[in-house]
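Bit of a strange request maybe. I'm writing a small parser for structure token strings and I need a real example to test against, not something I typed by hand. Could someone generate the tokens for this chain?
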Amino acid sequence: MKICISAFIFFILNLANAQDLTTHFRHISTRNGLSSDNVRCFFMDSRGFLWIGTMGDGLNRFDGKTVKTFRHQSNNPKSILSNDVRDIAEDPYGRIWVATPNGLSILNHDLSFSNYMQIPVDTGQLNITPINSVSMFKGHMFMGLSNGIIKTSADFKKVVPTLALLSKGKLPEKLKCIPFGMYTTSTGLWVSTHKGMFFSRDGKEFMHKGHNPEKLRILQMGYIQAFTQAENGNLVFMSMKFPGVYTFDPRTGMTDSIKFSDKMEFFPVSMVQVKDNIYWASTFLKGIVEIDISNGAFHFIKSDPEMPGSLGNDMVVLLYKDKQGSIFVTTGYGFDMVHPSQCNFSQMKTYVSDNSNFPLRSAYNLYQDKNHQVWAGSYFNGLYKIDMTNGNTFHAGLKNDEKGIFAISEDQDRLFLGTDDGLGFYDEKTDQFIKLKLPEALIGITKGNFKFIVRDKNQNWWIGIWLQGLLQLSPDFKSYHFYASSDSNSLLKYLSPIGGKIDNLNRLWFGYHESSEITCLDLNNLTSTHYKTSKKGSGISGMDYSCTFNMALFNDYLWITTSHSGLLRFDMVSHEIEIFNHSNGMPSDQMNFIRPDNLGQLWIGTTAGLVRFNSQTNAIHTYHFSDGLPSEYLMDADLVFLQDGRALMTCDRYLWTFNPDRMTVNPLFPKIALTSIQKSGMDLAIVPGVREIDFYYKDKTLNFEFTGINYIDPDKNIYSYKLEGLNTAWNSLGSNNSLHLTTLPAGEYTLLIDCSNKIGFRNPEIFSYLIHVHGPFWKTWWFMSLIFFVISGTLYLLYRHRLNRIHQLQAIRDNISRDLHDDIGSALSSISIYSEVAKRMSHDQFPQILPTLNNIQITAKNAMENMSDIVWAINPKNDRFQDVIQRIEIFANQILSAKGVKFIFDIPDEISLKTLSIQQRKNIYLICKEAINNVAKYAEANECQLNIFNDSGNVVIQIKDNGIGGIDPEKKSSGGNGIYNMKKRAVELKGFLDIISEKSIGTILNLKLIIK
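Reply from user aminoacidic:
Good idea to test on real output. This should exercise your parser:
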């Protein structure tokens, strides 16, 4: 939603005493980088940037901390048309439209301007100089000129002049739109002109007082000065002729009003809602007027040069409220801004009853007596009594010599004071200071800077004196003992004891200005023990801490603030020390006061803010100027907790109060926005909504600059990043808001950037940016895929070629097998038959050739058997192991059954399905055939077993008989192949043949080989 009026303040709950928290403004001016202090208009874009138009010095972009300025440059046609910025808007593409007296300037994503002094219409070119206001409504941009209103699309394809918008009613001859006078609300577009208010619900037709068919009273009003939409949808506005406030309900068309309870003596121009019925309006010369529209009551919020964080100037023109509740105020000296979370501290009255000024930066210590009366001691102005009901302070009646109050304690109904003129008592009833009478020897010693006054359980007083030592006084102040570090039996280690706290065991703990040591003085027996905070075994060995500044006893620990080393937690039992300093969250290592509250927290004043330290969890939170703290330098400040739970603090010439249990922190997390992207040194345009980039292998660097948009406490922004796809851990950037990436491996990465201003919390809205890293083309997926397909295709072609060769070989094997069987087998069969016939024919005629013929017949039979084995071996149909076993089984049954030998075989299924080569089939079959043949001829067995099994990855073929055994391994079989040839075949199989033969037991043949 666009609201072109600006200023900012928030009003929050009262403290326990019903006192309002002080509104604390943050000032932004040319000192912070703003191009001009003459601010004219505001606009917050969709990314969260605040755009600031100035009167005569250009356009500014603000993220809460840094300012980027755009000015007109006479020699640059892509710069803004004019330095006088009258209004600002944003189109659907994320471009910024700037209304100037010289025309329209549109800021593009690459931060260059497209400029228009004329735009095309149906009748030619329309002059658009000057432009006074601009606003986006219903997807179109409306521009208010000095002579009417025009509507255009963001690309200028359709431009409609004012007359076309007013299809009903008559348009005034001259219509001048007021600068920054267009208001886009949830119910319509309102345009403020010198002829009154114009209104459109749809952006097509406008109503005005001359054409008001619905009789809306709001359109009959005169010049409307301040205008805003309330959270309930109503419009709240003021008119010059009515001393009060109007409310208009767009749903009913009803207008209501309420008069101010006092005379109206201000001229409001803009208005924002603060909460419920509370509104703020600008007044030109009277600051901001806060108005309660429920009763017409109002009061002014003005500038106070003596008050830190007050309104910068009373010349307020514009107020602007963003969607997150921040309010921005023009003052003529730049602008001010504030947010509810900044209002944690309340300023009290600082005048005294005699109208003298409260001491400037001189309130050294605060003290609350047993009657809950609060007293303030100062360096130069004596003692003050503070009335906590109204904040009034009263100067106590001390003499001029006792202007410096350095320590305060209490004795009965009197204050016991350590002043720059010695020790004494202040009696409130008589308003008199009575100086304590001390021996002559103590007079010179007790005129100095007193560091503490404490009382032990025996009611003795112990007083630490700067550069002197430690003074002990009896309860009646009549006897004393003084201890100095120069004494041989001194209880002190050094001069200038500081801190001074007495624990439950009646021990006095104190430190020193000159040393990092602390002393524990046992007041029961007056013995002292000294501890070096840097001694070994302390948990922080080797650290040399600076001197003690203050001490607190809390939760069984001694807490010590130091001048340069942060906060120390000293265990009074183990004597170990833990440090809390800048490295683990403290804003500064220089610390002043330390005060415990009733919530388990310690409050510590530092040179960089007020620290709230949780003693149980060690959580640290710091309150800065942006949180409403009047000053971040608290080395001259003090703090005391009051009976009602509030804290009273002296700070920067004023008294301030706050409630520890109601302190708020920034409720908003910073919003990350990119401000610059550079690839290999070249700037890239930042397009809203586009969060990805291509990064090629030739690109050397990728730089991101970003900001955490934060209008409350930008100095607390802490950045971290993670590059998903490369690492899983978050990397801290601290306050650095830039990231430099070099060459990355090819792939997709998601850059995550986090910005938080809350210690221990992560921003729930993590900024993400997709980075596509493209390697060289030879490493791209498509090239790798191409190579894969080429290699796969080549391998497939080789496979097909090999498969074709195998098929060809198998065809050859088929042909050889068929030819051997048909041709040679037929011939050998004929030889066998013919030799048998010849034997019969020559039995009587030629008996001497019978042996020869018999040999021919036997040789032919053996050749036929061998040929049959070869034909079987080369036949591709017999490639499986089970084919070999079947052939062995057939052979064994034929030869062994004739001898009455029982044949048994066993082969596992996983082995029977294995495939064998020709050589393997032939050699396995012939070895087994030879072995079975030997069993049939020589073993005299009645049983033969063939077992095949796996043995440690090897296949074992075992032939076992129960014959006579003891056979000669070298004896040849009937076929002429002995065991030697069997072993030779085993070698060809790359296996091992083992024969075990024992008499009367039998023979075992084991053939081990590898079959894949």
